[in-house]
From TrEMBL:
PROSITE patterns hit by this protein: 2FE2S_FER_1 (PS00197), 2FE2S_FER_2 (PS51085)
Protein name: (2Fe-2S)-binding protein
Pathway: Alkaloid degradation; nicotine degradation
Gene3D superfamilies: 3.10.20.30, [2Fe-2S]-binding domain
InterPro entries: 2Fe-2S-bd (IPR002888), 2Fe-2S-bd_dom_sf (IPR036884), 2Fe-2S_ferredoxin-like_sf (IPR036010), 2Fe-2S_ferredoxin-type (IPR001041), 2Fe2S_fd_BS (IPR006058), Beta-grasp_dom_sf (IPR012675), Diverse_Oxidoreductases (IPR051452)
Domain 2Fe-2S ferredoxin-type per the UniProt entry, residue ranges: 3-79
Protein keywords: 2Fe-2S, Iron, Iron-sulfur, Metal-binding, Oxidoreductase
Native species: Thermogemmatispora tikiterensis
A Pfam family this chain is assigned to: Fer2_2
Entry-linked CDD domains: fer2
GO molecular function, one term: oxidoreductase activity
Length: 170
């Protein structure tokens, strides 16, 4: 029997009738058309289905929608802001961190969570944060470099926000 639930995804509310055994991954992709979240192993081993649940990376293939009704869910579709790519998306593209792109959404969301928690991670901290996301194409080096570059970009943006505007100074 289907149950009507409300999910908060990428800042929007969705009412969805779900069967109790369906996973969040299935609901995102099949019911809501949010296909950026990838269907990988269904065993919680690859990280392709990673989404953020209240800012924390979780595997949507192991998560039941009934359990997350009171949470904010962020998918890859929710990263862009005001029509602009997130700095991580920009650096992934610029540095060639994505090859086939299948692991990229989960990798990006795990990296976003890391940079929100730790704006200046070391290479080892980046490796640890992304350890649940498997990539078969890149060898990870470009991915780590892209996360480091995004951390620098975000830090520079924060510094710019704190600097008084020189044009406004007497």
């Amino acid at each position: 029997m289907r149950e009507l639930i409300t999910l908060r995804i990428n800042g929007e509310r969705y009412e969805v009738a779900v069967l109790p055994h369906r996973t969040l991954l299935e609901v995102l992709r099949e019911d809501l058309g949010l296909t950026g979240t990838k269907h990988g192993c269904e065993l919680g081993e690859c990280g392709a289905c990673t989404v953020l649940l209240d800012g924390v990376p979780v595997l949507s293939c192991l998560t039941l929608p009934l359990e997350v009704q009171d949470c904010e869910i962020t998918t890859i579709e929710g990263l862009e802001e005001q029509g602009r790519l997130h700095p991580l998306q920009e650096t992934f593209a610029e540095l060639g961190a994505a090859q086939c792109g299948y692991c990229t959404p989960g990798m990006l969301l795990s990296a976003v969570a890391l940079l929100r928690q730790n704006p200046h991670p070391t290479r080892e901290e980046i490796k640890q944060a992304l350890s649940g996301n498997l990539c078969r194409c890149t060898g990870y080096t470009k991915i780590y470099e892209a996360v480091e570059a995004a951390a620098e970009r975000l830090s520079a943006a924060r510094q710019g926000e704190r600097q008084p505007n020189a044009a406004l100074q007497p």
